[in-house]
């Protein structure tokens, strides 16, 4: 919850962190999170009334858990206020598999840059362009972060975590063991040194090492590959000295304070140390990169906004994910939680879900009812309103009484306005703490539960440390990771590190409360909807201060100002529970503000001013304050500003970072003085502040003195010593009081008020200063007002410009009314004189109004007032009165005196009359207007009388009145209404006559009726009488009758309607019209049809006759009364025919397909119904015959059922089974015949099911009797018994059925006894004998079954006797006899102890063989018998022993050690060295085996050690176990014997191998002998069929050490030079192998490394000394370098270049300006030749032409001792062999003439050093040799040049 947080600014990220615990990320038991539950509370209805009070009550118990659950009472059941069908919301996509197991968003380019710099600077090599791993390019950046995530290289190796590292890099591929090993080697070779380097840097930074080499203004040399601007020119050096920088901080946008500016080593952007998040105290060691360069936008991780989703779409996606991961089964919560953490840790695949999170309820709606929301139709209005104002409604909770957020009027989403959350399965809310450490409360409206995890607030710091140590790479890339809410961590990791974690399962209608500073997170079990909001009771205040400090440290913008919140709450504080917490926080603010302000004063910031007041000071959030550009916090209480950056502010803590101006130019801005803050703390008597009371007491008693308790400690140094704050204030008071006594001077007041600014912010001891300062400000304002008013009056009297710029009399009176006057101002008396004159003018104007003068006199007075220099209010009134009178007069004249007068509106007339009454001026037009007004009033009253008269006015009377009214020019509404009435009457009369004239020709009678109806209605609504209304009514009646006639002819109407229309036409005298004659004809035809139909219905007839009459009705165009009866008769007959059709044409198959059943009752009903039909039918007789046949069948069926029942009851004797079978077959034959006849009947017969049941019973008894003559199958008996359950109840109790059922039951037991399935348990002998006895007792005889059971019992007894005989004679026991007994027992024996003993003895041996097969199978597969494979292993061990025998000088030649199991018949080749035979594929091109190749080279390569463990061979310890387990087995088992022989041979091989390894480890001299012995051991190990793990490891170690020694020996021999890196690698490799430190070769390689490093340091020093070191020393270093076995190409090149000397000073190139002789090509320094300019033409050195032109005086150079030797001083010959090369910009020597162009050539010399360097590098002529000593002649040949003759 809370606002989205901005990302932090830059911080160094590359560091070494090996703190990740081994158990943190490896194998966490996600499926068994043994987390203790958080407390659950069940409030009563009374406790549930006040949320804040209840939470305060449970806080002591719950806060220690950080989280708790509240289950509301059952009465709490708020409705969900959103319509689920129309509810849509935006979503975010969450990659659940990346919440923890994701790589950091590191920019690989930055990593490669830093890694390359490390290689070049510390290892002297360049990074490889591309490394291949597992078929793809290896990302070193991701590999490095993966190892860092798992604790560093050491821990990854110790705990075998390379598989996890590989999955971290590429989670989509399987990792083989070989890939893990390769990845380890790549990291060890390329990144391990870099890890160690970063660890050292991190250690240095932690120790606080102060390294200033990276601060920009002190940077003197350019680091390797680091971008820095060159400052070689003189102008740039001056700019550097002035401290001017062109680098701007990316955070505060300031280029100042360059001494603490840190530049990124990639992009060169800058950040101040104090602007970073979190800030740094010092410059970090090593290179530093900003977060923009460290992080890659491509790999950045976050929750991506998704699509707008409806709830139905969201639910479908949730169900799809559930089916994907759990199928159709209902997963438990434990299973869901286990799978969630497996996905989070990257162990169960990838999963993307969507989550409707952080939905602003002010936009998307709340789940709780709110005031103003529409009430849902399913909720009662009273219930809705109850929950609208409920305190547990999260829309109300933050604003309750006692909440600190009550004063916040800004709708902050998530804090003041709840957020809605629509979750699905696995959607999660990551670990976070609430904004400002608020409380939070979450309510689950509906759906599946939520799973919460909480960490108590007291463990917040430890939680962060565990997160950082577990995910170091993520936090290095993003230090503010926990602010971003995108990271999860398994709670079990936190538990393992001692962090208490508690869990909560939130069910629907439950609240979850999190406490301040508590980290919490969780996920959803499925589709649900929840709502959450923050709140802040009084006990939150200390935590709020912690949250504000956290924002300040991370440079993050706060949601609201904590200081403003405290101050506003203090102003509104009324709750005694709030005051104690509030006092403590306000005291902290007071102390902080006081200390900061005092510090500012001591540092010279004396200017101060109040901040602009807020419009709504009693609320928070209505106006936004400025923020500090450094820490981004709101500046509510105070701020610092400077005129150089007017729109920029900082807090008091960061005042030194605002600008570089002097502190006297800075200004303190404050909202409250310390005295006001003190008063705020003392808001109630219970919170009285001692200091404030004492201060007030001192102020009241001594107004001009100060309390020295506070001010005396504030001391400032001045020129003459020190002065206290109080002394300065007292001095200021004395100066301020003197100002009131002297004439006003604005400059003096400004100066004294500016000086007072340093005291106004203080406490109550500064109240006198504030009081006097306030009086000074009032006096200044008053005096300036007097001066300003007087100046403006005098200026207006001179200019006489109307009222422009005049001062009003009220303003002057306001200034003059102040008594006593604040100060002495001389212009006050003069201003009073002007005011008196103005008052006299006011009196004159008022007198003119009261006298009602004419307009001319009024204008004279107005002119006088306008010329007066003071603006009088009455002047405006007079001018307005005169102007109104003139406007009125023009309006009246425009009506009466214009050429074409128009009618005046009565409203305008009344308005003119009203204005005339208000005028205070006399005008001549007033009488004329009054007479006209009286005439209009008479006309108006007459119009009203006409309109209100109860009777309608005649048309002619109204016409005459309107003609008289047209003579008066006035517009009256009533008159216009009368005119409108008259016009309507005329229009109505015209419309009527138009219709009447066209009536005879019209046939649209319906339209005529509508028009006449409208005319009639309109005429009745007229307000005057018209004579045509009666004509309209008569014509309307005729038209209506015609309309009815047309309707009767167009539509079929009842016969009565037609007759009524004809009667009405006769009355209206229009029956002879053509329309009514047609209607009369229709009436006649209808009467004739009615007579015919009634006759047929009465007497009856055939179906054709009825149908003929029905067809005739269609020709009669009227609704006939008898037509319905006729149709009913026909319909009834057709229905009878349709119902009787199945009985007449019976088809059983068709009826079954249609699912129809014909009942006998239906047949009877049809027969009865046929007698009542009016239509005569012939099928009724056939139905009567069918009914009689059915009655006869039922009689035969009943007789057969009685016979079967009596037989089943009476049959009880089984002596003649065949007789019973014949009787049953006879009954079955009869039953089948009757059943067949019944099925052919056309109706459903009630006796047919009974007959079928009897048939089924007879068939069952027949099957049961058949078992008496044979042994049935168990399946047949089971089927018989199963069918017995379905026997009809009426026959199941019969005697014969019961006897057969009992016999069949025991028969089934007997069958199961004899024929038991193989996998089922056998029965015992006792059970078999019991079954035999029961079968013999049964009434039903089973002779065959009894005989077979007796034979099985005899076989079992015989087998048991054989077993006892075998066990009683130990000497005759053998494996073959045991197998024979085991086979007989499986076929003949019942369940008995003897069978178990035999099975146990055989099972032990078989299990041993299976175990042996498991050991052998990985080597040979499942190709042959176990015995043959053991023989092959035995033969391979004999071969291995023969190879060991070669150490003694005798051995038979073996065939292919590499593939010992291949057939010797394959094509073979003999090794040219050892004469062993090998396959062609195992040999090289020279026919030498791989073992002998290594023997010739003097060592064993590590790659060949794979032969030690060739294939998946069984281990020796496995065969040792087999030998132990086989002790006590029966003799005669061939496999046991072979295994014992194999083990014996393997032990001999083990002994030989130990002897070889011991010899290799203890002898160092004879490398050839050791190599031969190791090769033999390697061959023997490779050919052996068993693998000894310990022996193989020892052999591999011996091979590695021997190979290392061979390589070292070869290197020390100096045959081929190597690199220093190779030597260092060899040394490190030897130490890792465990070679002792005192080993000869290890000591030799260490000594060589030290010699090389010493030589390298000396070479670098000599190469850059510019000639300081003697030349002889240079040659010595060259000789030493050539003698070393290490190759130093670059350093040797530098030394040889250093040996070349130039000029007469005989020094190497030291980058000074030089010039070449155009004859001998020798180079000379300008200063050695005293040259100040370059010659314009040619230059000849003094050796070539010493006296050409002007004489050049050469200085005497100072030589070293070597250079002063005469015999060693060489000449300076010119190299004539080399062709002279011309260079751009080179000017030849010109010593002829005068130096004319001195100025131009001096400009050339200024940049000579830069140009000269480039010049000589590009076009440098061949150099001559330097002077050499005589004893170095022999070394001359080593130099890269030759002497010129």
TrEMBL record:
Keywords: Metal-binding, Methyltransferase, Nucleus, Repeat, Transferase, Zinc, Zinc-finger. GO terms for molecular function: DNA binding; histone demethylase activity; methyltransferase activity; zinc ion binding. Residues 105-199 form the ARID domain. It comes from Dendrobium catenatum. The gene is JMJ14. PANTHER family: LYSINE-SPECIFIC DEMETHYLASE (PTHR10694), LYSINE-SPECIFIC DEMETHYLASE JMJ17 (PTHR10694:SF133). InterPro entries: ARID_dom (IPR001606), ARID_dom_sf (IPR036431), JmjC_dom (IPR003347), JmjN (IPR003349), Lys_sp_deMease-like_dom (IPR013637), Zinc_finger_PHD-type_CS (IPR019786), Znf_C5HC2 (IPR004198), Znf_FYVE_PHD (IPR011011). It is found in: Nucleus. Residues 246-296, 1700-1747 form the PHD-type domain. GO terms for biological process: methylation; regulation of gene expression. This is Putative lysine-specific demethylase JMJ14.
